[in-house]
């Protein structure tokens, strides 16, 4: 800059007087050293005084006049890229724009261009990964059971387990459209042998209390202990009808709603010990039949959502 100025103005060969503000890059030690080497005298500038800076109140406004109201190709390209791929981030667009223009363009500048064009930024919703094999299973299950009549769903006994207290207590539960039945508290590790004992002691009794004695459809998920050979043999002899829901399908998992209700009940108390936790969790038996009926009806809506989503994750 110094050589350029001296080349245009030979009268300034003996030195320059440079007024500058107090921005940190201007008062850095290395900058001051270069100024002394080139015989440049710095004119002190008081802070907060833009009226004393000719560049601010005259030069830069004059430079802006010729380009005021004009749109440049880079802006058009940014908007074109957004239309083609709305998921592009401002950071990526800024990087590409900087490469084209040959100078740095910030992501915030790109965001301003996008907002001025009427676009709004959004964060993409996170979707769980579902394998291709399970996508096909979900769609096949949804198409097969979507048109099942209400009487079919009234016969289904849904079962599942959940951990509470950081895994110190596990609960097995079952429910149907007309109510919640036995909740079994399990302390320790649950394997297929213990699972068979739970079914032996609770499933038929729960079916009888629900008015489905000998005429129920048993549902369980694809947990390894549920699909063990001994469990399959037990179900073959004791459950005439079974409902096998596809893997990776929490959106049609009825017991998830029951567990959410129990979790809400636990959060309202300061749990002192396992006995107190068990007492609070037993409030699940007090859930009204109207609530369980609505929960089971949500399964059909979940099946419709799976079909609409074309095998992919739904808004569960």
From TrEMBL:
UniProt-listed InterPro entries: RNaseH_sf (IPR036397), Transposase-MT_Hybrid (IPR052709), Transposase_Tc1-like (IPR002492)
Q: Which GO terms describe its molecular function?
A: DNA binding
- Cite the Transposase Tc1-like domain residue spans from the record: 75-146
**GO terms under biological process:** DNA integration; DNA transposition
Q: Which PANTHER family match?
A: MARINER MOS1 TRANSPOSASE-LIKE PROTEIN
User: Could you identify this protein by its name?
Assistant: Transposable element Tcb1 transposase
- Organism this protein belongs to: Trichonephila clavipes (Golden silk orbweaver)
